[in-house]
Amino acid sequence: MDYVHGYSDRETARLADQATTLEELLLSDTRYPPGSCVLEAGCGVGAQTLALARRSPGATITAVDLSAASLELARRRVLDAGLTGVVVRQADLRQLPCPDQTFDHVFVCFVLEHVDDAGQVLRELRRVSRPGGSITVIEGDHGSFLFHPQTRASLEAWNCLVQGQAALGGDSLIGRRLFPLLRDAGFRVSTVLPRVLYADARVPELVDAFARKIITAMVEGIRETALRNGLSDPGRFDEGLADLRRLAGSPDSTLSYVFFKAVASR
After folding, report:
1. Which own/partner pairs from 27-34 qualify as long-range (CB within 8 Å, at least 24 positions apart)?
2. Given phi > 0 = left and psi -120 to 50 = alpha, else beta, which region is 234?
3. N vs C: which end of the chain shows fewer Cβ within 10 Å?
4. What is the pLDDT, as a whole number, of residue 168?
């Protein structure tokens, strides 16, 4: 499972900014009861872990990821935040070191887009879920990103992200597929709802956060991958990146993006 954005300090900062910016939009209705056992599948550097733990102080959260480097950062975040109900473990989501029916709830956020077999991962998550337990899956859909002003170069740079992720076996358009993926993995799907982020000059801080700290940062992170795979040339890519950067400072900028949040049961 290759991570298209890489593991740089810049990416760690982007993930933290993203979690903070999107927390209310994506997690406002996610809370787990005291005493429940929760698996966070693919916790990365712990950007979502802290929010989950704060919102469910009585739950025990097991946060797993394949990357040892990311887990070290996640452990540090958990310790610095003084959270005692979080256990951080290294694990492959395709073969979890857990008995059947271990967890009451499973939480997955911005993970399936990066794996080459999302169905296999979901079947494994179902195996470790208890009967009647829930799974919450949140994924974006890069095909839903609409922005103004838009130039041909900026659109091409954004599409390099979509194509680059596909070249690594991922799917940045996976949000639209959550229902069939969960159904085919054996889950009973309760809801799949779009969570729409929209920003314009009336909320300049949101325009800045989304355009500069998330969108532009994601595209910056795939520059080498895009050039190496022949998806663009340096001059054209950098032109598009510059146009995307200008979204953060323009009073005419508008941005819209759709995240999909699915809730299902075993």
Report:
1. 27/51, 27/52, 27/55, 30/55, 30/107, 30/136, 31/55, 31/56, 32/56, 32/59, 32/104, 32/105, 33/58, 33/59, 34/58, 34/59
2. alpha
3. N
4. 86
Query: How far does Cα 97 stand from its chain's mean position?
Result: 23
Which of 266, 224, 214, 223 has its CA nearest to residue 245? 214
Pick the closest to residue 216 from 196, 195, 246, 236 (CA basis).
246
Q: What is the pLDDT of residue 4?
A: 62
- Phi first, then psi, for residue 186 (nearest 5°) are 100, 5
In a domain? residue 4? no
Is 3 domain-assigned? no
Q: Is residue 258 part of a domain?
A: yes
Alpha helix (H) residue ranges in 128-210: 152-167, 178-184, 204-208
In a domain, residue 2? The reply is no
Q: What is the pLDDT of residue 13?
A: 83
DSSP secondary structure letter of residue 172: T
- Residue 263 CA neighbour count, 13 Å, CB half: 13
